[in-house]
């Protein structure tokens, strides 16, 4: 019996090192490495974009050229060489009219390995999938159901062509090209991403979902997501990523903009599992993301994220609570293991009256990793009766990791009420032994304890995502104790 | 069922158990008594396989199999259960979820499929009724904010769910008032049968009024210095431990 368990464990440890670390041969078209105005133009041309879009990209590129990489985050890494990256890669021969049945069988195989086969998704879930492999969307499902409601859900490239008035109006309205180094870079070279528009008063009948994936070696990936919920509408959006193993660092600098007009609600959930590097800290994805939402009057924004991957994470999904009574929420689980570094948190900018925000952050550190929560709660002078509740909990495993909390508060209004709670705990040997004694092996015990610690956030995820998230937590912390 | 032969164990090079011999047969209840620091809790931890203690000599044999090379969870799968003196808290993990995980891990080790949800629910219902446990209690986070009595009842509930061959109750009576003590003891009595055995580790005689032992052993300085029937417990109550030293 003992042999059986040991062998099982050994096998598991071997296969779980990076469960999604495989590489699929795709016939891709890749640009030469390096970045200049010609490359920016070429990207735009390749995608058949209108002149205004090309100009917008070029403007962003010029801004970016004069910017320097930010250094204030609590992370250290070798800065990427931006001239050694290829800025465009697309699976060849994409026909926008093709159906899932026409999709490259090799791709479908890849999804199967990831457990997200389209067939299965189609049959079993009511999730519309807009899958991004490298840079170009290859398949979109459930479009018809969405069409009936007037919901637009497509790739951003398609939206630029089909709905230029919406894109032109909103792109860069929440995250301007001048916002920060990576946002500017993304604006110049973004390859593809998702676009979503929910018309007035419409409740999106299904969870919208996008799976991102880095595939080509040495290809930076720059997604651009734009989501607009018109007055009184509702949408729940799921974003999940897994990336194959790579030795060199891969840069990922996405921009996500959410706009919730009056009385609208957006729920945005992310499970992020980019390759974190091996156990010696070699390789792994750099994830420098700008995510921000704008909430108009009575609107509600809810960010939920489970961050388990990336070698370095730099990410602060934020809410600008512009309208009166707007509500912002941020629920986060960030796991770091081995040599991973995460500097993540949120900004809640209260501008309207009676605006409310909630921040629940759960950081789990293991190995030699560093996990920082960085959050800003800002109350503007007009934001009477603004409320914020922040809770930051850290769980440490072992003695070599670090957990840090950097809460910033700026209040210009004396009627504001702000609460902040923070705890730090450690997974104890006594907890593990207690579980062991009940027949629960150490790896499972850790997963159980971590899931318990994260429950408040996991509960916020849509059901099918929660299952995946739990699995990821487990995989990420493999072998981190004893 | 359980044989302990010349068991020596130490922690950080300090020898705590200095040659314990004990045989427990199916259907029996053994009480282990002794003053503080005699090694009672160490004995229970060593049987359960706590790796903070090093077994330097001797054997622990369960149903003919030496437990020496088995990890704590493997011992649990073989039917060893320890009711902790200080049950630990696991925030966010419900009693139900914890038990579900424990039962299914044990089944997995035996090559069985997960227990079907309906069967699990039935088992939970049956055992919680047997031990008069409010079902609401089972959705609470494991031991978090539990009173002393609730913690110990929860231990016995887990024992009921896992149906062990040998249950070691480590100071289950500590911190309990008389009502809680009675409830816990009744629970143990209901779970006792021909095929299992119970080792009750206690400081005081009062628990033994409710869980009546077949044998009482006195542990002193890492050794069993006296063994008798249930009347020995009463004698100890009266005379204390000093006369045995």
Description:
The complex is a heterodimer of chains A (482) and B (245). By secondary structure, chain A is α/β, with parallel strands linked by helices. Chain A has helices at 2-16, 37-46, 51-65, 105-113, 118-124, 143-149, 156-162, 164-170, 181-189, 429-437, 442-458, 463-476, and strands at residues 28-30, 89-91, 127-133, 136-140, 152-155, 194-198, 207-213, 224-229, 234-242, 250-252, 255-260, 265-273, 285-295, 300-307, 312-315, 318-321, 327-336, 341-350, 356-365, 370-379, 387-396, 402-411, 417-426. Chain A has one domain (9-345, 427-476). In chain A, the strands form three sheets. In chain A, strands 5, 6, 8, 10, 11, 13, 15, 16, 18, 20 and 22 form an eleven-stranded mixed sheet that branches. Chain A has a ten-stranded mixed sheet with strand order 4-3-7-9-12-14-17-19-21-23, covered by helices on one side. Chain A has a two-stranded antiparallel ribbon with strand order 1-2. In chain A, helix 7 crosses helix 8. The two termini of chain A are 21 Å apart. Chain B is an alpha/beta fold and 245 residues long. Chain B has a single domain, classed as Rossmann fold. Chain B contains seven helices and twelve strands. Chain B has a six-stranded mixed sheet, sandwiched between helices. In chain B, helix 3 runs parallel beside helix 5 and helix 5 packs parallel to helix 6. The radius of gyration of chain B is 18 Å and the shape is globular. The mean pLDDT of chain B is 92.
